[in-house]
Design a protein that fits this description.
It is a single chain. The chain folds into two domains: about 110 residues, translation initiation factor eif-2b, domain 1 (Four Helix Bundle (Hemerythrin (Met), subunit A)); about 200 residues, Translation initiation factor eif-2b, domain 2 (Rossmann fold). Helices cover about 45% and strands about 15% of the residues. The strands form two sheets. A seven-stranded mixed beta sheet has the order 3-2-1-4-7-9-10, sandwiched between helices. Helix 6 links the parallel strand 1 and strand 2. The protein is globular and about 60 Å long. It binds ribulose-1,5-diphosphate. Ribulose-1,5-diphosphate (RUB) binds next to helix 2, helix 6 and strand 6.
Length: about 325
């Protein structure tokens, strides 16, 4: 039986009440803790099955964000190591709780570290542009502002879900000069921008970025205008599956996020597409700011290999 609270978390991720790659990974990992705390398992095999069910449920909520399986993997790896030591049921539960706590702390620390590292690349007087709402990208901007650098930020609305409004609120609350623009105004203002900075839902082994729909347009326009394009991301958003040729699935969301049914009928019921993310090729990315340091997109493979070694292509068993 999957606990109600876990089902609620899965629904909240699906409906984007909980959103952003980092937040959803933390919520997914928290769901594993809730599973253990509410467990009815009488033995280790039953506990592992409960964990597997929760893992599958949370991973399936949003297919693009690699942070979800990678967050779950972090806990699963610790459990698999512990299993070799023949633990008791209670010992195994304790390991899950510890691993969850570690993931939470490390992931928050990574965001802060990205801010410290990335802010060194922001100068006083810079005009920045950000798309969507990324805590990693905002960490860089907010840290630069805390260092008393005089910065201006252009924030895109980010149709259809308007995450740009959240970005504006956070930056305005921090006293930063922010201008909200429609997504299609990016080219008009790009010549005024020194650096565009965005977050990541996934980074593939060739250094391509998967992030909120419209990101690749921002990158293309930045390249053409000779504006720097930075990605701020924790390394757990790098996709190990891409090392063995898997493609990252682009989530397609409900058309009603784009247009309501009544208006749709009024305009003759055209087909509607609503992809949540797009792909930015590595040649449009100047650098990737991670908690481990600044890397060129070409170094994505090295990061993945350090973390996951050489993958065999055999699908690993989670828990
Ligand atoms: C959010 C989005 C963000 C990344 C990174 O998309 O594309 O840029 O998830 O965010 P959605 P963070 O709103 O569909 O979840 O840096 O906070 O992990």
């Amino acid at each position: 039986m999957i606990p109600d609270e876990v089902i609620r978390i899965a629904r909240d991720i699906e409906s984007m009440r909980i959103r952003g790659a980092g937040n959803i990974a933390r919520a997914a990992v928290k769901a594993l803790r809730i599973t253990v705390q509410n467990s009815k398992a009488g033995n280790i095999q039953e506990l592992l099955e409960e964990l597997r069910n929760t893992a599958q449920m949370v991973i399936d909520t949003r297919p693009t964000a690699v942070s979800l399986p990678n967050g779950v993997r972090y806990v699963s790896k610790r459990v698999n190591e512990e299993l070799k030591k023949n633990p008791t049921l209670d010992e195994l539960k304790e390991i899950v709780e510890k691993a969850v706590e570690e993931f939470m702390v490390n992931s928050e620390r990574a965001v802060a570290r990205i801010g410290e590292i990335g802010s060194k690349r922001i100068r006083s007087g810079d005009a920045l542009l950000t798309h969507c709402n990324s805590s990693a990208a905002l960490s860089v901007i907010l840290t630069a502002a805390h260092q008393n650098k005089d910065i201006k930020v252009f924030a895109t609305e980010t149709r259809p879900r308007f995450q740009g409004h959240i970005t504006c609120k956070i930056l305005r609350d921090a006293g930063i000069d922010v201008t909200l623009i429609v997504d299609s105004a990016v080219r008009l203002y790009m010549n005024k921008i020194n650096t565009a900075i965005v977050g990541a839902d996934a980074v593939s082994s060739n250094g391509a970025l998967v992030n909120k729909i419209g990101t690749s347009t921002v990158a293309l326009v930045a390249k053409e205008a000779r504006t720097l394009f930075f990605v701020a991301t924790e390394t757990y958003k790098f996709s190990p599956e891409t090392m063995i040729g898997e493609l990252i699935e682009i989530e397609e969301r409900d058309l009603e996020e784009v247009i309501d049914r009544e208006e749709l009928e009024k305009i003759g019921s055209p087909k509607v597409l609503n992809p949540a993310f797009d792909i930015t090729p590595p040649q449009y990315i100047d650098l990737i700011i991670t908690e481990k340091g600044i890397i060129p997109p070409q170094a994505a493979f090295t990061i993945l290999q350090e973390e996951f070694g050489w993958l065999t292509g055999v699908k690993e068993q989670l828990f």
